[in-house]
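Example record

One chain of 163 residues, shown exactly as stored in the release files.
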Amino acid sequence: MRKKLLSLILSMVIVLGYPIQASADNFLEGETGTFEETEDGVYELKNSNGTLLLTFIEDDGSAVMPRSRHNVNWTIDATSVKCSSREFSILAESPIHVDLNFSRAGITYIGVYDRETSNYLWVKRETRECKGTMVTHGRDALLSFAIKNASGHSMTYTGSYSY
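Predicted structure tokens for this chain:
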């Protein structure tokens, strides 16, 4: 399954963005759905109707050949969200590789903000890193990369994401 998902790299339009701070009160996280591990290292986010929205695969990203790579060096206050102010167009089933380190342990959500639906799709991490591939499902989308610090303290995130 990993090879199939990673082989679906398609062309997309990329625009570099600068981070903006947003309130953690104004977004959807998928609480009405489920986020669960379906097999070792593979997680799925489904809405309340059971529709698959996002797959996250823990990996080192070596199979991803990105068209664009963006560095991240963001410090995010406790219970806050930061997302790129610019968008990128991505085709459904196209991978987004994430390679991030966190300054300390705490609950973090890594994901994308869908500019057309105003919804976030999140992968929950409770470690000091996030290394893997996200695949959005269902339709082509206009997205921005996003991080939510759900911990009780400020955290710095460094690394990159690519697609």
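Notes: The first strand starts at residue 19 and ends at 23.
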